[in-house]
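Lab meeting notes turned into a lecture example. A postdoc, R.K., suggested we walk through two folding results consecutively so the class can see how the record format repeats. The first protein's sequence and structure tokens come next.
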Amino acid sequence: MILSVRHLTKTYQLRMGWGGKRQIIQALREVSINIQPGTCLGIVGASGAGKSTLGRLVLGLERPDAGEIWFQGEELGHLSLREWYRVRQNMQVVFQDSFSAVNPRLKAQDIISEPMRNYLNLTNSEVAQQVMHLLETVGLTASDANKYPHQFSGGQLQRVSIARAIALKPKLIVLDEPVASLDMSIQAQILDLLLQLKQQFSLSYLFITHDLTAVAYLADAIAVMQSGEIVESLDTVNLNQLSHPYSQQLIAAQLPSHPSDRKSFPSNLLPNSYEQSSISS
């Protein structure tokens, strides 16, 4: 097992307004997931379901209130900062917003080479050679090495972020909505690239998304999150086998490939806070 999350719980305390009372938000409730080596687990749910919180806890960016995170047979809950430095060499991330995920003052070659300079004992020429190879691997060219982030399109910059993520040949990559901000045609290209890299380098993915279509294409297993809980999970990605009412609600909310294929939203799946008229209007 490359990653095993057991009964993970996380709460936040928010102050409601100036001088207001503190409100406790339960972000995760007893969440458990497993990822086998070389596979992709798709975590699906609406905004606020707790998907990104789960990703941050796995990456060690935040600490859970309770539960365990096991990575490559090692429990991560009590690691020191120095020990986390060692673990992160094999655990990388690709964020949704590629522009905010990079330093706008660095060229692409510096963005990609940063992990190598932090972890690997390479000469400047070896680093430059690796950068060129990574650019080619993600579908960019050597001329892109000297470009700044603002000179790339969103899809191209996401390729730079992916190149940085695979620079150290990690075992696990957390994909936090990696295609959500891209055009449909570019989304397909990035998903193709991620699938190719997964097969080429035997990568394991924790794929966080709200897009069931993307999960069906990239993932090997699926878990559906609602209000901080896993309400349904499958070891295979067959959307027809999803049976939980919330899973059915997500399926019904997916946009069709063509407007003429649009179906009415089943009334029995509407959230309590919505009226049928507001959906159909």
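The second example is placed directly after the first for contrast:
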Amino acid sequence: MTDLPVYELERTFDAPRSLVWRTWTEPKLLATWYGPNVETIIHKLDVKPGGLWLNEMKWGENSHYQRAEYVEVDEPEKLVCLMSNTDADWNTIPNPMMADWPLKLLTTVTFTEASGGTDMRLTWVPHEASDAEIQCFAAAMAGADKGWAAGMELLEKLLGELQT
């Protein structure tokens, strides 16, 4: 398969780019909107090439772990990382809810100044994925909007609070 499916999320925020950038790069701010409807615990956030973001999403007695390794950081314009599901020791594992989900997603987030606000664009692309993983990702892309949409609503609210 040569053409990889690409999940795209675009959102415009009524906030300066530097502030939107901070909500993605400061642990306390990131934890308030990432992983809606769960307790988000940022175990590590080292925003630089080769740096790691270690994230736990907790609900009740259950936890879901994620790891992202930054491959490109261009403040305040672009973040690029490889995201994966992990076990509690931060070892990459298959998604516990979808066995054929790609082990890694190339995640790119761009922040562009736009008429007093910020255009944010996020893309996910399967990275070094098998055909089965690519097909699983393509089939599940529409469902990704639900989780991201809830997170974006929280992010919009946070940006409003930070500007008052």
